[in-house]
Amino acid sequence: xxxxADLDLADPSTDPREVARAAAAVIADRTGAERHDIALxxxxxxxxxxxxxxGLGDPASSTEMDNTEVPxxxxxxxxxxxxxIRSIPLPDGRRVLVYGTRTHYYEGRGVRAVVHAIRxxxxxxxxxxxxxxxxxxxxxxxxxxxxxxxRDHINLTADSPIEGANxxxxxxxxxxxxxxxxxxxxxxxxxxxxxxxRGPHYExxxxxxxxxxxxxxxxxxxxxxxxxxARASGMxxxxxxxxxxxxxxxxxxxxxxxxxxxAGQAAAQRCGDLLARIVERI
Length: 282
Fold this sequence. Notes:
Layout: H1 16-31, E1 38-41, H2 48-54, E2 63-66, E3 84-89, E4 95-99, H3 111-114, H4 116-123, E5 128-137, E6 146-155, H5 176-185, E7 190-196, H6 205-213, E8 218-220, H7 224-232, E9 236-246, H8 257-266, H9 268-281
Parallel strand pairs: 1-4, 1-5, 5-9, 6-7, 7-8
Antiparallel strand pairs: 2-3, 3-4, 5-8, 6-9
Helix pairs in contact: 1-4, 2-9, 4-7
């Protein structure tokens, strides 16, 4: 079995899919599960969802490993994230692969590292991925703690995880079927367009105004590159944002990452239960 220890994602000669396969092999070995079915990426404020999912089945059957034990992964770099990978069995026999953190574009490790978790999930057998994040809201009626379905996105990183002449259609990237399913669980869920900036600095009020003009409803620093990689890997994508604060210029209050963490904590129970119910029905 390839360990992946000598595979460097930053090396242009390395095939990122080979690193993903090596990572999936380690996860299968550690969990004793030949395949997983659903992947879940937890953004700021979504950590309690893992516990809610574990509660659906036998918690003793869950397996957790540190990111650093798996090829291509590194420790969490953002406060409020958990640097672990967790395998959770559902009562119907399916398994959910839960990432407690993500690699952000602004960390400077390259797009391959940003989407490595997605490619690993695909290599592990996942056909569905749920991407969550904490974000700034552009609509005043979306108070901090409001979950919003992602209907579409605008990628302002000027980058892509796709290499070479591999043309991927993104027309219905965020699955209408899964959004409908989510609204069956919670009919109050609204949806919007997520705009990813490069970060790590927060957006200026002028940039937020621009995002609104071009059709954005939510702004953040993640998700779009992962979603593109998931589509390229043949996965069905559901995206859910947690509005943790009004975006710059929407409120007179200066932005602070601690505010993001606290808003997530305040909405933790609702978001955790919501996500568990959605994943259970996928």
